[in-house]
Amino acid sequence: GYYIMRDDPSYMIVDCIPADPKAPTGHKHNSRLSFDLFYNNRSFIIDPGTYVYTADKDMRNLFRSTRYHNTVVVDGEEQNKFSDRELFRMGLDATVNINKWIVNDTFDLLDAEHNGYTRLKEPIVHRRQIFFNKEKEYWIIKDIFTGEGSHQFDLYLHLAPMKLKTTGKNTIETDNSDGTNISIILLEENGIKMEILDGWVSFGYGHKTNAPILKYSKRASVPTTITIAITSRKT
Length: 235
Description:
Elements: E1 2-7, E2 10-15, E3 35-39, E4 42-45, H1 57-63, E5 72-74, E6 96-103, E7 107-114, E8 124-133, E9 138-147, E10 150-158, E11 164-168, E12 171-174, E13 180-186, E14 193-204, E15 207-221, E16 224-234
Antiparallel strand pairs: 1-2, 2-3, 3-4, 5-10, 6-7, 7-8, 8-9, 9-16, 10-15, 11-12, 12-13, 13-16, 14-15
């Protein structure tokens, strides 16, 4: 269920957990096709964690929602349906299918998709292709949407607690003083809006810390795509 692209000391881990009806859903989050990125001994793009359970139902539901993972929300809907009142139950709407998985000394390639949004009135399939060039230390993440109609697409990236800066119309860079940084580059415009939001990450139960969120948004008819590149930046 997890696919790991590794070239020490860096790796990306991608959530492709299957929809197993036998598995308990009490601790499940909406994280299909979400990824974490660890580059040169530092966490950059991370899973925000759990924070709390019954002590705060709104925060419980936020931290397990699709928008609190590094993946795409379509029309404001969840990948897997859940009730705000049932804090330990989640549906099995999103089934992941692996189209291609290649690993070698120079690159890794993952091509996967999920069908969690095919239940919409105008159904959508979210397909994600991730290419990792190990020699030049960059990742290309291409989200592909097919199906029917016009929809709102929101891609969220949750950063570890660190400073961000805008260095170009379509480029965000981390600003860590130790010189270990990355650039996140939007490779296509096509009406895409880029924002930096205030968010939270939780490294332990009952504790949360401020951290930035990158959000890329567009409304478009399908088929359509959102493509970003993540590159290393040592200063």
